[in-house]
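Tokenised fold entry reproduced for everyone:
>
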Amino acid sequence: MNNKLKSKTVDMLFEGILKLETVEECYIFFEDLCTIHEINSMAQRLEVANLLFEGDTYTAIGDKTGASTATISRINRCLNYGDGGYNTVLERLKEKNNAD
């Protein structure tokens, strides 16, 4: 975890996100908090991470998502050498989808 990011206000943000109970509540909160472009950028990053997690190539991912190779490379570094945030979310989403 990046200690430069840690603060009381960031804690409040994350605690607030954890209080959201439905996807609809997430839409409402994030539309208030972020621009549409910011939300779409975060969603694209998660999609890229998922495609990398599934073993897709950079070219295929770029074609599917429109993400640049620089973005794909950065996300790949996070998947392989980061703190595991993407992996945690992707594994939990996969578990949920397998349970449904």
Residues 37 and 43 are 10 Å apart (CA to CA). The helical segments are 8-19, 23-33, 36-53, 58-65, 69-81, 85-99. Residues 36-53 form the longest helix (18 residues). The chain has a mean pLDDT of 95.
